[in-house]
Amino acid sequence: MNYLAIVIAAVAAWLFGAGWYMALGKPMAALGTTPDEMAQAKTRPRAWLPFVYAFVAELLMAWILAGLLGHIGALTIRGGLISAAFGPASSSPPWRSTTASPDATRGCC
Prior knowledge:
Blueprint: H1 3-24, H2 27-31, H3 35-42, H4 49-72, H5 77-96
Helix pairs in contact: 1-4, 4-5
C-alpha cells in the first residue's frame, strides 16, 4: 500500500472540500449566524477541531479505498464494479461525521 499516495489523496480531498464550501456553500446562512457571531466563534478554544476531524475522515476514506482497490485488484472491469459498489458504503461513516448537523443550535463539538 502506498501511504504517500493515501496522504496526498486525503490532502487533495480536504482542499477540494474547502474550496467547494468556500465557493458554493453559505455556512453562515445554514447555521443562522451573523458575521459577528461567526468571527466570535473563531476565537473560541478548539475552533480548529472540526477541520482536524474532516482531515482525519478524509485520511480514513483514502485508506479504505486504497485497501479496497489493493485487495480486489481494480485494474479489471470486475474490480472496478466491485469498488464502485462497495467503495461508497465503506466510506460513508467518515463522510457523514463531517456533515453539518440538522440541528444547527447543537453544533458539532
